[in-house]
Every structure is written in structure tokens, then in C-alpha cells.
Design brief:
With 597 residues, the protein is mainly beta. The chain has six helices and 34 strands. The strands form six sheets. The protein has a 22-stranded antiparallel β-barrel. A hairpin with a 5-residue loop joins strand 22 and strand 23. 24% of the residues are buried.
């Protein structure tokens, strides 16, 4: 996850976010479902666009291919590493991606869609930058790595008078590596992290959707073959400051299978919308997950259109999702240690909401929700829920685990907006949320994403001569975090291997970061020509350079000339340590051009 999306939004037609009563056709989702719908390429003539910004460049080409087919192809490549290197950022990411879609309309009843996406990511350390305290800390423990992924598939649709069939074949592939050497010196051979994970998923599903008057039926089945190969060699330091080398080389294959059905009906002259669906899912990873009846997943939703402006909504459901592959693949030697202990993660949730819409484009919406999580992975070495593990560029979940963690989340979401009207639009959103997971004693504590308050204000306006300005102000409550275990981290034997502060999980998420707020501004100017357009933009992220609330660093005192850690004069087995703030809060400007033809 980062600030740059993998998918080119210019190829999208629509996006739908489901936070309750998920579509029964979508398996393996716990809290929400985001569905992205691509548009078709142009059928009239060849066209496209070219984009050049401060951090990347790219193009999109589209057009007809014969009389019954159209295509789109997009590619992007970053060069942000050069700007970030000049700013002294410790990690220099680069990426490249390509996206393709082609649609064949054989006749009015048959169509075939081919789609694919691929990317290559690489992150290196900025070891030549000015050696500030924060940079030395970050390059001391953050690994370097690469990631290659692709996803592709074919979708065939056959249309009948009141229904249509959908057949989907697809494949996902991910190959990620990470390495770390002491002092970032590969020639010494002192490697403290060597990790590779290969994940391949081959999927098939068939669906049938029937539409008659105010009724919609849908049912389908899915079958999937997964293969996961993991090689890991890494350092783990326990609470007693004992360090051990975790090494394993595991592989597992499994079949996933599922079926679903759903029913939707509009009653009382479209005044009441009713939706009900069920899913059954299973897999061959272990005996616990094989029986689909154990993953019986019902969902229900009602919408009452009280008037032309007022709508009342209610939803409830039970959903299941597999644990992350990194937990499923953990092992000792070639043995899968967690295989007999894991279950599908389960979420039981309900929501109530109301929205009000006007003819002028104003919309007001408020919704309350409650979500109960069960059978979440609990990490046995750290004695914490996976939900409370801090990634921080380090592997998360590669340790023994079971399915004993529980959690909950509840809150209210508020939104009011004005759709584009008379040259402007605006939107205000606010969410209050409490997110908690049980600790080793069974008491609920804040999860790592328990921000409590999340708000944003967005405003856009168009002016004469094709000028447009957009601003967005965002506010986020401080994340909880676990304080450092200074006694353990200061030991020379511990620091020399980890090069970072270790957390004191007996004080799980007791501390909280300051709130974060920032202003983003974008200005666009478009020039129209006979057969093409030129758009120039200026984008300012974090315009008033607000400090980003991030986990502070526990680092060592260093000698001025050599940068070597200073030994504690009162205890020769330890280093002198100190807490420093993270190096954040930069203004990130971006200039660019977009050519459409």
C-alpha cells in the first residue's frame, strides 16, 4: 500500500464500495468489498493520452480493432526516486505497470473480455544521503526488495431474454523478495534477512443472473487452485532478549471452492428494496476449513424509500476470509507449523443508515455500524493479535499463530455533499470509529488502526477559460502505538542484530500519536485545439507542511565522526539510547502535463 494506485483510473467506468450486505458473488471479504468496473475502449477512432508529471510518466491508447472489438492499453513508469533522493528520504521506490483490456462483441448475445495488469516494484535505500539521525536509523533496519505481479483473465457473457451467464477464468501471480545485510554491506555476508514469497492463484467461476420485472435471482459456483512457496531466514528476538534465526522453506497447494445464491425484490411499487444472499466456502488447507457448512455466510439488506428524498437502510451479515498467506505459510524447516491451528476469519456485522437527497444535488447521509471479529490470527511469540502487529517494513505474521483472537469495531459515518452544480462541488465527511482487539489476557485494547476521528473537506470549482481548482483538507486522529522496550533494545547483542527499537507488548498500544491534518491543492488549466487538448496541472501535497504523525524512533547515541553507537558508561553491555521524532512533514509539489487526442 502506498500513495500511487496500481490501476489507471482513466480506464475505469465505475467503482462501488460495499461496507455491508456484500454481494454474495464475492468471496473472501471481511470488512468491505470494492468493485471496480472498467470501461470499454473507443469504437469510433484511435485515441489516447500522454501524461508527464514530477514523479512518473505514462500513456493510454485505445481504439477499435475491427468492427466487433475495441481495446485499451496503459503503461506507466516512475522516476520519483530522483526527487526523493534529493529530499533525503531513506527509501527510494520505483515502479512500472501496464494494463490492458479488449472486448469482442460477437453478436447481441455473446461477448468476450480479455483483461490483464502487471507491475514491477523495487525499493532501494538512500545510503548516500546526508547521514541524519533519522536516516541512519531507517537505513539501518529497512530491507531492500523487489516485487513482480500480474493478473489476467477472460470473461465470457452469454445473454438470454431475461438473464445472462458469466464464465470467468483468471490467474494472479506475485513474486516478492526482501534482503537485509548488516551495515548494508553485501560483501560481508552478514545477512540478517532473506525472504521470498511466490503466490499463484488460478480461478474459475460461473454465474447466472435472472431478471424478471422487479425480481433478480443470481447463483453461481467458483473453484480455485492456489500455490504458495515461501523461503525465509530472519532474526527474531523474544521478550527475554534471546535472539534466534527463523529459517524455513515451505510450500503448500490448496483448492478453494464455493457456491452462492441471492435474491433481490422491489415491493410496493418500488417503495421497499429487499436483498438476501448466502455463500458457502471451503478449502483443502486443513480439515477445519474443508467443510463449507462451517463457513455458512448469510447476508440481508432492506431499503425503504419513504419519499422521493428520504431513504432508510438496514443490513446484516456474516462473512469469512482466509488468514494472510504469510501466516499460513510459516513453518519450521519444511513443516507448516500453523496448518492445524488456523481457521477462516469471521466477521458478524450490522448497520443502520438514512440518506436525504434533493433535486439540486445535495445529499446527506448518516450510518451506524457494528462489526464483531472472531477467529483472527493470534501471534504466539509476541502474544498479540495480528491486527495489532506493526509492519514498519518488517515481516509481519511470520511466526507461530492460532485462531484465538477476537475484535470489534463500531462507529458512525456522516457525509454531506453537493454534486457538481453551477461550476462547483463540495463534500464533507466525518467518521467516528472504535476498533479494538483482545490482548493476551482477553481484554479489549485499541487496534493499530483505531484512529477514532477521520474527517475530510473537499471543494472543487471551475472558472472561465478552462481553469479548475480543487482543494482537500483531511484530519485523522492519532494512531495508537506500543511504546518501546528500552531495556531490551539497548542491549548491544540485541541492537547489533535488529538495528531498531523493539516494542514492549506488555504495554500494547498504550500510547497514541498526535492528530494529523493536511491540505492538498491542485490547479488545472486546459487548452483546447482542433484535434487534441493540453492540460497542465500543479499539485501540492501537504501544502502547509504539517508534521505527519508517525511512530517515533528509538535509536542509539552515535559518535560524531564515525557514527558508531556509544556504549553506556554505566553498563558496557548496552548502548546509550534516545527517542527522536520521525522525519516527516514535507511539502511534495508536482508539475505535469496531460495530452488527450
Amino acid at each position: 500500500g502506498g500513495p500511487n494506485g496500481l490501476i489507471n483510473v482513466k480506464m475505469l467506468r465505475n467503482a462501488e464500495m460495499h461496507t455491508g450486505a456484500f454481494p454474495a458473488s464475492r468471496p473472501n471479504a471481511l470488512s468491505s468489498v470494492l468493485e471496480l468496473y472498467q470501461r470499454e475502449g473507443r469504437t469510433d477512432k484511435f485515441g489516447g493520452n500522454f501524461t508527464l508529471g514530477a514523479t512518473d510518466w505514462g500513456f493510454l491508447l485505445e481504439g477499435p480493432m475491427g468492427k466487433k472489438s475495441s481495446y485499451m492499453i496503459s503503461a506507466r513508469e516512475s522516476f520519483s526516486q530522483h526527487m526523493l533522493k534529493a529530499l533525503g528520504v531513506p527509501v527510494l521506490p520505483t515502479y512500472a505497470d501496464v494494463q490492458y483490456k479488449q472486448v469482442f462483441h460477437f453478436d447481441q448475445k455473446n461477448e468476450l473480455t480479455l483483461t490483464g495488469i502487471g507491475s514491477y516494484d523495487k525499493f532501494e535505500l538512500n545510503i548516500d544521503a546526508d547521514p541524519t539521525e533519522s536516516l541512519l536509523y531507517n537505513v539501518g533496519y529497512i530491507p531492500e526488495g523487489k516485487q513482480f505481479m500480474y493478473a489476467g483473465g477472460a470473461v465470457y457473457k452469454h445473454y438470454l431474454d431475461n438473464s445472462y451467464y458469466t464464465i470467468v477464468l483468471s490467474r494472479n501471480y506475485l513474486n516478492g523478495t526482501a534482503q537485509k545485510f548488516l551495515d548494508n554491506d553485501e560483501e560481508t555476508g552478514d545477512q540478517i534477512l532473506d525472504y521470498q514469497s511466490i503466490e499463484a492463484e488460478n480461478k474459475f467461476r460461473i454465474e447466472h443472473k435472472i431478471m424478471r420485472d422487479d425480481i433478480e435471482w443470481e447463483y453461481g459456483v467458483n473453484l480455485e487452485h492456489d500455490q504458495v512457496l515461501t523461503q525465509n531466514a530472519s532474526i527474531y528476538t523474544d521478550r527475554q532478549a534471546n535472539s534466534e534465526f527463523l529459517a524455513y522453506d515451505t510450500e503448500f497447494q490448496m483448492l478453494r471452492y464455493g457456491l452462492y445464491g441471492s435474491y433481490a425484490h422491489r415491493f410496493f411499487e418500488d417503495e421497499l428494496d429487499f436483498f438476501a444472499g448466502i455463500r458457502l466456502d471451503g478449502n483443502t488447507y486443513n480439515a477445519e476449513m474443508q467443510n463449507p457448512l462451517k463457513q455458512f455466510s448469510p447476508r440481508l439488506a432492506l431499503t425503504w424509500h419513504a419519499t422521493n428524498q428520504w431513504n432508510f437502510n438496514a443490513s446484516a451479515g456474516i462473512y469469512y476470509q482466509l488468514p494472510p498467506y504469510v501466516v499460513m505459510a510459516y513453518g519450521e524447516g519444511k513443516d507448516l507449523v500453523n496448518q492445524d491451528r488456523l481457521k477462516y476469519m469471521r466477521s458478524s456485522q450490522a448497520g443502520l443508515g438514512v440518506d436525504f437527497n434533493t433535486k439540486e444535488g445535495y445529499q446527506f447521509k448518516v450510518e451506524g455500524f457494528y462489526k464483531k471479529y472472531e477467529d483472527y490470527p493470534f501471534l504466539l511469540l509476541d502474544s498479540i493479535s495480528l491486527a495489532n502487529a506493526n509492519a514498519n517494513y518488517v515481516l509481519v505474521g511470520n511466526q507461530p499463530a492460532d485462531a484465538s483472537s477476537d475484535g470489534r469495531a463500531y462507529g458512525v459515518e456522516f457525509q454531506v455533499k453537493q454534486k457538481y452544480h453551477k461550476s462547483y462541488y463540495w463534500m464533507l465527511t466525518y467518521t467516528f470509529v472504535v476498533s479494538q482487539f483482545a490482548d493476551v489476557d482477553g481484554s479489549y485494547v485499541s487496534s493499530s488502526w483505531d484512529n477514532r476521528h477521520i474527517a475530510s473537506v473537499a471543494l472543487g470549482k471551475t472558472f472561465g477559460k478552462n481553469w479548475q481548482v480543487g482543494i482537500r483538507w483531511s484530519f485523522t486522529g492519532g494512531n495508537p502505538y506500543t511504546p518501546y522496550d528500552i531495556e531490551r533494545s539497548s542491549l548491544q547483542s540485541v541492537w547489533d542484530l535488529n538495528r531498531r527499537g523493539l516494542l514492549d507488548y506488555s504495554r500494547l498500544n498504550e500510547a497514541r500519536l498526535p492528530v494529523f491534518h493536511a491540505l492538498d491543492v491542485r490547479v488545472d488549466k486546459q487548452f483546447n485545439f482542433k484535434k487534441w487538448t493540453l492540460a497542465c496541472f500543479l499539485d501540492l501535497q501537504n501544502a502547509y507542511m504539517s508534521p505527519i504523525a508517525a511512530l517515533p524512533y528509538l535509536t542509539v547515541e552515535r559518535e560524531g565522526e564515525t557514527g558508531a553507537p556509544i556504549t553506556d558508561p554505566n553498563d558496557p553491555t548496552r548502548y546509550l539510547t534516545k527517542i527522536i521524532s520521525s522525519d516527516t512533514g514535507r511539502l511534495i509539489p508536482s508539475l505535469g502535463v496531460l495530452i488527450d487526442f
